[in-house]
Amino acid sequence: MIFYGTRAKNIHNGQIKNVKCPNCDNETSMTYSVYGKYAHVYWIPFFPISKIGVTECNTCKRTFEVKELPEAIQNKYENEKEKAGVKTPVWFFSGIFIIAALTLMGMYFSYQNDTDNAEFIVNPTKGDVYHVNGDAGYYSTLKIEKVTKDSIYVFVNQLQTNRKSDLDNIDKDENYIDIYNFSKQDIKKMFDEKEIFDIERK
After folding, report:
1. Which of 11, 27, 130, 135 is the 20 to 30 A CA-CA neighbour of 35?
2. Could you say which DSSP state residue 25 is in?
3. pLDDT of 105-152, one tens digit each?
C-alpha cells in the first residue's frame, strides 16, 4: 500500500496595515499567513502544488481566505508577500532530491561493479565466486580453487536458483563438489558472452 496525498505547511506570517475589514468595517490591520501546499508520498514532500493565503482581522478576529477579500486588500497582501520574499521552501522537493541521490548512487555502484569485474576477470584469484547463468533461466555459482599460468580450476555449485538475489544463499562450501578445469581464455569468453555476469571477491 502506498500512502500519498497533499499537505499544507505554514511558510510565512505577516501584517497588512491600514485596511478596512469587510466584516466589522473597522479601519484596522490584518495578520496574514501563507501556506505552501505540497504532494507527498509516505509523508515525504515531493513537489509544491500551490500557495494559499489566509488573513485574520486583528479587531473582530474573523478569518478570510485572501481570494474572499476586496481587491484593494488582495493587492496589499501581494505587495507585503513580495516584500517579504516568500518563496517555496527547498525541502518541498525532498522526495525528488532523494530519488536523484539514489539514482546517482545506483549508477556509481553499477559503474564500480563493472570496473571491479573487468579487473577480477583478467586477474583471477582463489576464492573468487563467479555468478553464472544456469539452465533455463536459473542461476548458480562457480568458486575458484586454483589458478595456474593458463588455467582456472573451479568448484561447481550443485544447486541453482531462479533469482539472482538468492545466489548468496546457495554460496556455501558444502554445495561445491565437482571441480572443473577451464582455460583462462574460456573463462574470459564466458564473461564476454555474459554467461558469467558477476564476480564476487571476498
Report:
1. 27
2. -
3. 999 999 999 999 999 999 999 999 999 998 788 999 999 999 999 999
Q: What are phi and psi of 152, to 5 degrees?
A: -130, 125
CA dist list (Å): 32 to 29, 63, 84, 148:
10, 9, 12, 79
In DSSP terms, which residues pair with 13 in a beta bridge?
33
> Could you give the CA distance from residue 102 to residue 96 in angstroms, rounded to a whole number?
10
CA distance 21 to 41: 39
Write the pLDDT tens digit of every residue in 57-107.
Answer: 999 999 999 999 999 999 999 999 999 999 999 999 999 999 999 999 999
| Residue 18 near residue 29, CB atoms below 8 Å | yes
**Cα–Cα distance between 12 and 104 in angstroms, integer?**
34
Output the CA angle 171-193-175, nearest 5 degrees: 15
Closest CA to 124 of 194, 176, 199: 199
Note the pLDDT tens digit of each residue in 17-65. 999 999 999 999 999 999 999 999 988 999 999 999 999 999 999 999 9
DSSP 8-state class, residue 160? -
